[in-house]
Design goal:
- The chain is α/β, with parallel strands linked by helices.
- It folds into two domains: about 5-70, Winged helix-like DNA-binding domain superfamily/Winged helix DNA-binding domain (Arc Repressor Mutant, subunit A); about 80-280, Rossmann fold (3-Layer(aba) Sandwich).
- Helices cover about 40% and strands about 20% of the residues.
- It has helices spanning about 5-10, 15-25, 35-40, 45-55, 80-85, 85-100, 115-120, 135-140, 165-175, 200-210, 250-255; strands at about 60-65, 65-70, 105-110, 130, 145-150, 155, 160-165, 180, 185-190, 190-195, 215, 230, 240-245, 260-265, 280.
- Strand 6 and strand 7 (about 160-165) form a beta hairpin.
- Helix 3 (about 35-40) packs across helix 4, helix 6 (about 85-100) packs across helix 7 (about 115-120) and helix 9 packs parallel to helix 10.
- The radius of gyration is 22 Å and the shape is elongated.
């Protein structure tokens, strides 16, 4: 048998196909069965048998729309570490978020370091009502002239000083409208918005249900990740605010999923960070 024929036959072996499949999954967050079949020159049935074998070995995971690598749920770092990490990116994201706010707009500010940065940078000229379940946000805004500040109360989680439970849910269930800025544990183009703290999800779902516009603050390190608990699908969001470190393939994956990424460029001068904001 000639060398060319031997190579061709070797390329059709299950081990070779599965190596190519794993290589493709490493390159993209989600790979469709049809794309794998076209790349391998194999039938859909053959590819699906290979995917089943890989899943049984714990090497892949079936998701809606295709297949992906199984990912260990990311562990959220301690608050103080998160507060100091990616600070320029969070400042740029906060400035972008503030640029979306018109005078008199009611704001709903969720928990998280990126959302707290919005409160920190909110201009002194802002006048309006702000609802929050974050004591960090409340600390930044308490006593500010022209702001009607409503704080949920409830049980408090240390570090982020996040309020949760029936008292927090009662605040958000009684108001409708406004622009909401949500924190995030992780954001995936197929799985959607997920978080680390199950007890805080009911409040977020009320915000999603009642807000006129809902933006998620997710720096680029959180994109493509999956935290343990599901909050919502991407379709529930108005857009995602992130920084310019987002991977190009992930950016495309979110675009294909129908969600807008508002990308804040991280510039040496924070005052200029909103200039050149890019929408994907």
């Amino acid at each position: 048998m000639g060398t060319g024929q031997q190579r061709k036959r070797t390329a059709t072996l299950p081990e070779e196909r599965r190596r190519v499949i794993l290589d493709q999954i490493d390159r993209k967050p989600i790979v469709r069965d049809e794309d794998l079949a076209a790349r391998l020159g194999a039938s859909i049935e053959t590819v699906r048998r290979d995917l089943l074998a890989l899943e049984q070995q714990g090497l892949t995971r079936r998701v809606y729309g295709g297949v992906t690598r199984p990912r260990a749920h990311p562990v959220e770092p301690p608050f103080e570490q998160r507060r100091l990490t990616r600070a320029p990116q969070k400042r740029a994201m906060a400035q972008l978020a503030i640029s979306l706010v018109t005078p008199g707009t009611t704001l709903i500010l969720d928990i998280g370091t990126s959302v707290a940065e919005i409160a920190r940078q909110l201009p002194a000229t802002y006048r309006g009502r702000i609802l929050t379940n974050s004591l960090l946000v409340a600390f930044e805004l308490a006593g500010r002239e022209g702001i009607e500040l409503l704080v949920s109360g409830g049980r408090v989680r240390g570090g982020d000083l996040a309020c949760f439970g029936p008292h927090a849910e009662a605040l958000f269930s009684g108001f409708y409208g406004g622009i909401a800025f949500l924190g995030s544990g992780a954001l995936h183009p197929v799985i959607g918005l997920t978080d680390h703290y199950i007890d805080e999800i009911p409040s977020r779902r009320l915000i999603l249900e009642h807000g006129d516009e809902v933006y998620v603050m997710a720096d680029s390190s959180k994109l493509g990740q999956i935290a343990p608990a599901k909050v919502c699908d991407l379709a529930a969001l108005t857009a995602v605010i992130t920084d310019d470190g987002v991977d190009g393939e992930l950016e495309q994956a979110f675009g294909d999923a129908g969600v807008r990424l508002l990308i804040a460029p991280t510039l040496p001068s924070d005052d200029a960070a909103v200039e050149g904001v890019r929408m994907a």
